[in-house]
């Protein structure tokens, strides 16, 4: 009935790690960890999304702009827009889309 999921706290900083946490017909939540200097290469999202930084420091590259995001910052981005993420330090964030 009730469960506690510890995937985020157990997720390692080994290059790029993507862990699905929740997936329904209407939305999904992904836990992502990036080791310092690792890159989440260019890709798009199938839905509008929100990125919430849990720890660390990342640069989000989109439409020729770079947004520096740190712990407890929330960033919204549109579907089907090419973007990439670079870790300035070991970082964890979740994607809700």
Describe this protein's structure.
The protein has one helix spanning 7-10; strands at 16-23, 28-34, 39-43, 49-55, 57-62, 65-70, 74-77, 83-87, 91-96. The protein has 97 residues and is mainly beta. The strands form 2 sheets. The protein has a 5-stranded antiparallel beta sheet, with no helix packed on it. A 4-stranded antiparallel beta sheet has the order 3-8-5-6, with no helix packed on it. It is globular.
- What oligomeric state is this? single chain
Annotation field: number of helices: 1
Strand numbers in spatial order across the main sheet:
1-2-9-4-7
- Helical fraction equals under 10%
Amount of beta strand? over 45%
Q: What's the order of the H and E elements?
A: HEEEEEEEEE
Please supply descriptive tags for the structure shown above.
single chain, 97 residues, mainly beta, four-stranded antiparallel beta sheet, 4% helix
Give a brief description:
The chain has 97 residues and is mainly beta. It has one helix at residues 7-10; strands at 16-23, 28-34, 39-43, 49-55, 57-62, 65-70, 74-77, 83-87, 91-96.
What layout of secondary structure does this protein have?
Layout: H1 7-10, E1 16-23, E2 28-34, E3 39-43, E4 49-55, E5 57-62, E6 65-70, E7 74-77, E8 83-87, E9 91-96
Antiparallel strand pairs: 1-2, 2-9, 3-8, 4-7, 4-9, 5-6, 5-8
